[in-house]
Amino acid sequence: MLKNITSIIFDLDGTLIDSAPSVLATLEATLAVHGIEPIMAFESRLIGPPLSEILMRLTGVVEPKLLNVLVETFKSLYDTSGYKASRIYPGASELLNELRQRNIPTYIATNKRRIPTELILEHLGWKPLFNAVYTLDGMETQHQNKSKMIALMLSEIDIELSHIAYVGDTFEDGLAADENNIRFYYARWGYGSVDKEGLRPAWCPMKQPLDLIGDLTEG
Q: What single string gives the DSSP state of each residue in 181-213?
């Protein structure tokens, strides 16, 4: 494999941080506030999609007004203190600091909302390590998805597609990379089910964050 990656886009949940404890606890608290019984277990496999989709899966609620109430309750609880329970995956901080030392630009492209994303990066001391942060709720279009988010990012940064990679933990992340013609590194330690759904030949699986170092060059 050619070692020609000079810029890296990261997913956040399930890739750099394990936010399952904080998200699941806040989901449980949200349902308790409204007296709603979950229709499935509070498990880490829920993590990844946009918040409204997670709540629909967990509650079966599809009525827009009630779903919006649940979303707002979750946001209030999570943005106050829930986000602080997020955990750093072993090796993630070391990887980010190594990339910064090598002057390799790094970016975030996450389904997580802007406010808790910024809060988490500040809480962990990671904010200076990223050149830019893109979140789904920062897009103007109503047809939001990870692929279009990355396309927007690529349109705003000046780099050859052959020199940039996306690191994520879900099948959706891999498809988003493919649709934008960039390399995909699969974080096997995260929440995704790529191994179950099918690891594509061009996707590069990693067992730990620092595995990425071997495919880097300083340009």
A: T-EEEEETTSS--HHHH---TT-EEESSGGGGG
Ordered structural domains, the chain, with CATH = 7-18+87-215 (3.40.50.1000), 20-84 (1.10.150)
Read off the tokens for 61. 């609620």
Residue 112's identity, in one-letter code, is: K
Tell me the pLDDT tens digit for each residue of 92-151. Answer: 999 999 999 999 999 999 988 899 999 999 999 999 999 999 998 877 664 578 999 999
DSSP-assigned states of every residue in 74-98? HHHHHHHTGGGG-EEPTTHHHHHHH
Q: Angle at Cα 27 formed by Cα 23 and Cα 33, nearest 5°?
A: 145
Q: Cα(45)–Cα(38) distance, rounded to whole angstroms?
A: 15
Of the candidates 83, 85, 40, the one whose C-alpha atom is nearest the C-alpha of residue 60 is: 40
Q: Tell me if 46 sits within 8 A of 57, measured CB to CB.
A: yes
Answer for the pair 102, 218: CB distance below 8 angstroms, yes or no. yes
Pairing of strands 87-88, 17-18: antiparallel
